[in-house]
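Researcher: Let's try something more involved. This one mixes different molecule types, so please make sure each is placed in the same coordinate frame as the others.
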Amino acid sequence: AQSVTQPDIHITVSEGASLELRCNYSYGATPYLFWYVQSPGQGLQLLLKYFSGDTLVQGIKGFEAEFKRSQSSFNLRKPSVHWSDAAEYFCAVGARASGTYKYIFGTGTRLKVLA
Amino acid sequence: DAGVIQSPRHEVTEMGQEVTLRCKPISGHDYLFWYRQTMMRGLELLIYFNNNVPIDDSGMPEDRFSAKMPNASFSTLKIQPSEPRDSAVYFCASRLGQLNSPLHFGNGTRLTVT
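Model: All components are placed in one shared frame. Result:
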């Protein structure tokens, strides 16, 4: 069955430090992969997406993610975190499941940024 | 572009009452999704529509939940009767085209059933 795993529920980093949020997926074919960010009281906003081609994709707000087929991973990275990056981050897979196409979301990683 | 608009932002109701959540998708988007978010279960897909037609409602938890999309610019999610365990944030999202297009989310409706 299709699934998305975000193994880190909470992550705390200092402002200016680098960041990597992990995402692993389970899907038989090449999936469509997304990272979304949710600020408190807001809906989810798309950071970046991967469909095919270059496995390193750039997104908004200085984020990037790398698709690694051999590891079934799509980790999100940022070289220098800003205090405004504190939010919850969701990895999602777009996949065919039970005869229909749907998005499967991970459980999210809450990022805290220390000043 | 006004984005996906949901109303109300907050709803507090008593157990047994009917609750109706509303959503206006982005103009021109042909897919509309209803999600529920809780701490315990994360983000769950309840139902989605394509061109106003329900495609997959397998995530609707019980018969107490129903959703309609009478036209391309409006959808409702109704809970009747409501129960405390329905307390959650309900999101509406819309999308243009197929799976490789991103979802655009509204700001959600926080429902509290006492």
